Amino acid sequence: MDWGTDLWDQYDHIDKHTQSGLDLVERYIKFVKERTEIEQSYAKQLRSLTKKYAKRGSKEEQECKFSNHASLQEILNELNDYAGQRELIAENMMMGICVELTKYLQDLKQERKTHLSDAKKAQQNLESSFKQLESTKKRFAKEWGEADKATQQAEKTESDLNATRLDVEKAKQHAQTRTYTAEECRNDYAAQLQKYNKEQNFFYYNEIPQIFNKMQDMDERRIRRMAEGYCQFSEIEKKVLPIISKCLDGISASGVKINEKQDSMLFIEQHKSGFERPGDVEFEDYSQGIKPATSDSSLNPPKVRAKLWPFSKKHKITHAEKHMPPAAEDFSHLPPEQRKKRLQAKIDDISKDLQKAQDQSEALEKMKGVYEQNPQMGDPSSLEPQITETTQNIGRLRGELTKYETWLSEAVGGEETANTINNNTQHGVVAATQNIYTEFEDEFDDVETPIGQCAALYTFEGNSEGTISITEGEMLSIMEEDKGDGWMRVLRGSGEEGYIPSSYVKPAQ
Questions:
Q1: Residue 452, H or E segment
Q2: How far apart are CA 423 and CA 428, in angstroms?
Q3: What's the Cα-to-Cα distance from 297 to each of 146, 273, 293, rounded to whole Å?
């Protein structure tokens, strides 16, 4: 069964049906476009979300050493990759379905237009032939009527006794002429009828069926292409499902590998001071009139109680370690454990740089040897500046390494002594505090330890809120480094604390 055989007389329905098919292609293209817009919007929102919650800066990098913080970062990374796959789906759908089907639709429209034009042209040719047939038929009928009238008139004239012989001959001759003309018209009509029937037969049995069959083939090809487009809608997403699945597996793995005990241990290692807990405070019997040797110093305890690490709420030392340059090159301002870790980290960094410099030196020496053996490859003397610079760099790094190793050795060897001194210091401070500064117990909870010392280069009048006045040459304790706004917080010997311009001081020698 085909359109040309069974729908030979259904031109209008074929026209509507094929147009409906093209409309469906256009509708599907629009549907996929809107789907791609949703995917792109979804991917964009996912990327914005991951960017919003991603850790940035030194503080966040420090926190990412903990497994639960690091896992969230990995989840955000996986989600960012997931967003990339959604973008890929949108791109492949746009290029593989929308763009290709749009091109195909244009070709179909042109092909359909051609077939319909051919059908209309064939119909017009048949109609023109039929009009010509009708014209010859009418002329034949007219001429035959005239010939019949002329024959009857000739017979009438011949039977008329008053008619002359000339009149009879003229009437007969006219009748013969009309009859001859009618016969010619009859032959023309017969020939035109035969021609029309042949054209009509060709139109209905060959020309129109062929055109309609071509349109059927076109429509079936469109349907098959639509089926492929429908499958593409699924297959494009299926192709990225393995990667999406890996992203989701990565997110699950990030949660599984979190180790709460390891995070706790890491936190301990990062922040333990290494100091011993304060010992018992000894009883001082003032009733016997005995004045303790430490009473002079304990009567005037410093406003800042050094080394009372457990009682500091803000832990400014840790904050300074994370965000500010060290106050001393040998990290002596840090607690023992933290100092050892920083020194060891510095030694590791210098060792890596030293190894790189040594590798570079060996490479330069080898290249110099090659140039000496093969002068055409290069000038050996051109490498001398680099070799000299590398040698100097190696010497400097070795000196740095020795210096930090010495400090580390001192830190490890002097830890017990430091702990002992720390205990004695804490005992004295606590005793004095209990005897004299009992009413300021809450204030001591917020006491901070200076992170360095500096000397005032110029006199500054602190007139605004939060600032303090300093005089040229005055020694100050640094409580908070400049965070990039040009101000730092310091403590004067008088106990006054506030902000001053960073450019007004220099590090203490």
A1: strand 452-456
A2: 9
A3: 155, 26, 9
Distance CA 408, CA 411 (A): 5
DSSP 8-state assignment for residue 312: -
Q: Rounded distance, CA 340 to CA 120, Å?
A: 96
- Rounded CA-CA distance 490/492 in Å is 7
Tell me the per-residue pLDDT of 474-498, one tens digit each, with 9 for 90 and over.
Answer: 888 888 888 777 788 888 888 888 8
Give residues with Cβ within 8 angstroms of 449, minimum separation 6.
304, 306, 307, 312, 316, 317
Q: Where are the alpha helices (DSSP H) in 165-207?
A: 165-202
How many residues belong to the chain?
509
What's the pTM?
A: 0.55
CA distance 140 to 182: 6
Tally of CB atoms within 10 A around 54: 13
How many CB atoms sit inside 10 A of residue 113's CB? 10
Alpha carbon 169 to its chain's center: 108
pLDDT in tens, 231-270: 999 999 999 999 999 999 999 999 999 999 998 988 888 7
| Long-range CB pairs of 482-485, under 8 A, 24+ apart, other chains included | 483/323, 483/324
Query: What is the distance of C-alpha 389 from the center of its chain?
Result: 43
pLDDT band at 340 (very low <50, low <70, confident <90, very high): confident
Residue 33 — pLDDT band, cuts 50, 70, 90? Answer: very high
CB atoms within 10 A of CB 160: 12
**Nearest C-alpha neighbor of 504 from the set 486, 484, 481, 480:** 486
